[in-house]
Design a protein that fits this description.
By secondary structure, the chain is an alpha/beta fold. The protein has a single domain, classed as P-loop containing nucleotide triphosphate hydrolases (Rossmann fold, 3-Layer(aba) Sandwich), CATH 3.40.50.300. Strands 6-7-8-3-9-10 form a six-stranded mixed β-sheet, with helices on both faces. It has a four-stranded antiparallel β-sheet with strand order 2-1-4-5. Helix 3 crosses helix 4 and helix 3 packs parallel to helix 5. The chain is globular.
Length: about 220
């Protein structure tokens, strides 16, 4: 599903460069459940955002579902992302001027799901995440944990081929966090590929593979 060849990310300061990622070579097969771990500043979230096609300022080769992402134009990348990837942001990234219901509906509109079908799918998601009572509220009216649940629901609602999750349980209490990880396990068993960034050994244990980053390098796979 994913192939990375000599992928690097750096910031230029005059003639010098500060590297965030160095010579990343990796493959992720369809149906894997992979955790990316490492200390703060190791490059974990940066790598996840490159995989999610939010960041285009990098060098090297990145293939996704056979498409050469490194050679694609921004519009092509955006379309590939919207049709195949669900992303759980560490800082939620919910749209402030839309209700919970409307935030959940947006990924379905990207996939050209008919309006008549959208309502049923959104209602199922609201029920599954036990946030039916929040559907008409705006993100600013939710707690951090509630926003996290909405963010996870939005990422999975359109049954993407790939879910990318940046500390997906960071603002949830233990029981909620366990439920989210069990949901990811179930989705993975149904064929969804999952890549999560986590500091939690417990969360990492739900997957079958761990990549360790340190100072931008892969030190263990």
């Amino acid at each position: 599903m994913i192939t990375l060849r000599n992928l690097e990310k750096f910031y230029a300061h005059g003639v010098s460069k500060t590297f965030v990622l160095r010579q990343i070579n990796a493959e992720v097969k369809e149906g894997e459940f992979l955790s990316i771990m490492g200390p703060s500043g190791a490059g974990k979230s940066t790598l996840l955002h490159i995989l999610g096609m939010h960041d285009s300022a990098w060098t090297g080769e990145f293939e996704f579902l056979g498409y050469p992402v490194h050679a694609m134009k921004p519009k092509q990348r955006a379309k590939l992302h919207k049709q195949n990837i669900g992303f759980v942001f560490q800082s939620y990234h919910l749209l402030d001027d839309l209700t919970v219901y409307e935030n959940l509906e947006i990924p379905l509109s990207y996939r050209d799901v008919k309006r008549s079908e959208r309502d049923s799918i959104v209602c199922d998601a609201l029920d599954r995440f036990r946030i039916v009572g929040k559907k008409d509220l705006y993100p600013s009216q939710l707690s951090g944990g509630q926003q996290q649940l909405v963010a996870v629901a939005r990422a999975v609602i359109s049954s993407p081929k790939l879910i990318l999750a940046d500390e997906p349980t960071g603002n949830l209490h233990t029981a909620q966090g366990q439920e989210i990880m069990e949901l990811f396990t179930q989705l993975n068993q149904e064929g969804t590929t999952i890549i999560q960034v986590t500091h939690s050994e417990v969360n990492a244990s739900y997957g079958r593979r761990v990549i360790q980053l340190r100072d931008g390098w892969v030190v263990k796979d």
